[in-house]
Fold:
Amino acid sequence: MNQKELYEWIMMLGFCAVDMMLYLDTHPDDEEALNYFNQCTALYNAAKQSYQEQFGPLNAFSEQERSSWDWNTAPMPWEGGM
Structure:
């Protein structure tokens, strides 16, 4: 996947996890839903890690250790960056 596709995949998986979390708030005994939530979060975490390894941190709170502060070296969104 390219950067944009991977970013969109992460956003879709995040939505999936939040949606399932809200469903589980009202259906806590739904084992199938819990399994689906766990699947969504595992895919989300893997995609997020892959993105950060390839393209850098997704946000300022990413778990990655930094050896430099380089937020301003990438193109800004209005310059065609993500």
Summary: Residues 1-55 form one domain.
